[in-house]
Amino acid sequence: MEHPENDSQYTGLTVNSGVIQPPVVNPYLKRRRKPLPTVPELVEGILKGDITMLSRAVTLVESLAPEHYALAQEVIEKCLPYSGKSRRIGITGVPGAGKSTSIDVFGLHVLKSGGKLAVLAIDPSSERTKGSILGDKTRMEKLSVHPDAFIRPSPSAGSLGGVARKTRETIVLCEAAGFDNIFVETVGVGQSETAVHSMVDFFLLIQIAGAGDELQGIKRGIMEMADGIVINKADGDNIGPAQLAQAQYRSALHLFPPTASGWKPEVLTYSGYYELGIPEIWEMIDRYFDFVKANGYFEIKRNEQARYWMYETINEQLKKHFYDNPEIQRMLAVNEADVLANRRSSFAAASDVLNAYFKR
Ligand code: GDP
After folding, report:
1. Where are the alpha helices (DSSP H) in 139-277?
2. What pTM was estimated for this model as a whole?
3. For residue 142, what are the contacts with CB-CB under 8 A and spacing of at least 6?
4. Residue 270 pLDDT exceeds 60
5. How far apart are CA 173 and CA 77, in angstroms?
6. Coil, strand or helix: which one is 268?
7. Ligand 1 pocket, 273 CB below 6 A?
């Protein structure tokens, strides 16, 4: 017998539309956003060392909204006269070299003699992953709960130049808030070192021994920027290899041209994990600051950096203005297709787009 359900007339099993589900989010709950503090409120807060105000100002600096940009610039401008008094120290090393472990102990060491420490970061990979690992509070267990430490992860959006500019502006805000030691951390894998180098007084390169081909693995450019090379994990069985690496780095440094500061970069070994050799590293950094302050290089370098960032900001803004233009974006798409299809040369395509931009 034919089953009644197979009959097209059968209605016993029709599915009725269900009841309308209420939204998961309560529509009546208004999300209250704290109103944005005014520029004078922010500046006053920062100068008093108020961390909440400092954080909010840094968020403004990092914001991509054009209206925030103008506000942030005003705050920075007002903080500038109170900035410049810190020791800015760049710290780099490949992932796994022990940066977070080391920054945690370096930080505590520095704070032992008082003052305040800000740890900032420049992480180019965060552009892709939309989240920064560097500067993450959980990586610096002791420092993150220290009342005199301010840890801020890398700004995550934009070009390396943009990310770096924001970190540099954050330095100004931190200094105005009374932070007298600033660490800027970066991963030792790419161009971000150059960006960090252009905003710090002292550049510390963390290395590890045991990879076998110590000197081949390091980009010469990074070594040339270093004011100090420190070989981490000099503990247990690794003391010997660490000392060997130290000797190798020392002799490699002899081959480099003299530095602009006249300072001879030093090579030390230490253990971040077992907290060995830490005071020696800070004695070296103190020696460096005494040296460059005495010979005037400290000021020269800071002036050079200020000039660099002026032009860097101009370059960045020009590029942004160009690439954000919808007409240009349309032209670029057409011209790029032409270039890829071999219909036009790269140069002809580029000059057409540029001419269109300049004629606007
Ligand atoms: P980062 O990726 O450069 O931030 O490196 P981490 O600080 O996360 O350290 C990477 C690994 O090396 C971790 O497992 C640490 O425990 C270990 N480590 C860090 N410093 C030392 C050290 O001084 N000695 C030894 N033996 N291990 C260390």
Report:
1. 141-144, 160-176, 192-197, 220-225, 239-254
2. 0.83
3. 104, 105, 107, 108
4. yes
5. 10
6. strand
7. yes
β-bridge mates for residue 269, sequence order: 231
Distance 312 CA to ligand 1 centre (A): 34
Q: How many domains does the chain have?
A: 3
172 φ, ψ (degrees, to nearest 5)? -60, -45
Task: Label residue 53 exposed, middle or buried (CB < 10 Å: 0-12, 13-18, 19+).
Answer: buried
Range in 27-36, 79-88, 151-160, 192-201 the model is least confident about: 27-36
**For residue 95, what are its two tokens?**
């992932």
Does 184 reside within a domain?
A: yes
The residue range of the domain holding 63 is 34-82
Q: Is the CB of 271 under 6 A from ligand 1?
A: yes
Lookup result for tokens 């395509």: 349
23 part of a folded domain: no
Same domain, 280 and 334: no
- 28 part of a folded domain: no
Q: Is 228 in the pocket of ligand 1 (CB under 6 A)?
A: no
Gap from CA of 51 to ligand 1 centroid (Å): 29
Alpha helices in 113-156 (DSSP H): 126-129, 141-144
- Secondary structure letter of residue 14 according to DSSP: P
Write out the E strands in the chain: 87-93, 117-122, 149-151, 181-187, 202-208, 228-232, 266-269
CATH code of the domain in which 63 resides: 1.20.5.170
Weakest mean pLDDT among 58-72, 123-137, 217-231: 123-137
DSSP state of 228: E
- CB 35 less than 6 A from any atom of ligand 1: no
Q: How far apart are CA 51 and CA 226, in angstroms?
A: 31
Laid out side by side, the sheet with 181-187 consists of 149-151, 117-122, 181-187, 87-93, 202-208, 228-232, 266-269
H/E stretch holding 285 reads helix 278-295
Tokens representing residue 9 in the block: 């007339």
